[in-house]
Amino acid sequence: MPADSPQRRPAQPLGERNRRSEVLCRFFAGLTEYTFTTQLGVVDPPLVDYLSEMLAHFVRTDAIYGVRTPTGERLSQVADMLAEAQARQGAARRRLHRHIGDFTLFWTGLYPEIAERQRQGRKDSLLDYQDQGKRNYLIASRLPADKQSAPDAVLERLSDRFELCVYGLGEIRKQWEEREGESDGALLLG
């Protein structure tokens, strides 16, 4: 490396990344199961598993904002994601509608104050994230699936129980803030 090159942090060994990812997955699985099963009385293992996996996946901001146009432009507004979904077909369209459901559920459930700020003065100001989340999970459940897709029945339940899931995610946020004593942004990684 040339002397004037900026210092880079050494890459984490794959084993260390896998261990951290596994710990994070267990953390979210435990919180999600406790919140939905014990506090809310929702005994639906596939739904609870889906939510805990979504949380672990969305820890990275590049996953939250992972939708891109064919030209590589990152989409951060639901209105733009909806337009992009209309241009896709089959399983790709299903994945995008599912992402819209996940995106709106994540923000309205865990960070409603940020969701509201994201919408102000932008295209999304005319959209109701909860309505969009319910609608897009339902659409996704009816489109052709690929091998990695969530089951239709789980996506339908996410649509039907969207408000309950929003409430449950809010409770999960309270739980991790109580346990960790960290700010609400501490679990989001760049």
> How many β-strand runs?
0
Number of domains: 1
Relative helix content: 55-70%
The chain-level structural class is mainly alpha
User: Could you report the average pLDDT, rounded to the nearest whole number?
Assistant: 87
Strand content: under 5%
Topology summary:
Elements: H1 14-39, H2 45-57, H3 61-64, H4 78-87, H5 90-110, H6 112-119, H7 129-142, H8 152-160, H9 162-180
How does this model look, in words?
The protein is mainly alpha-helical and 190 residues long. The chain has one domain (16-180). It contains nine helices and no strands. The radius of gyration is 18 Å and the shape is globular. Residues 1-9 and 182-190 have low confidence and may be disordered.
Tag the structure with descriptive keywords.
globular; 190 residues; 0% strand; mainly alpha; disordered N terminus
How would you summarize what this structure contains?
With 190 residues, this protein is mainly alpha-helical. It has nine helices and no strands.
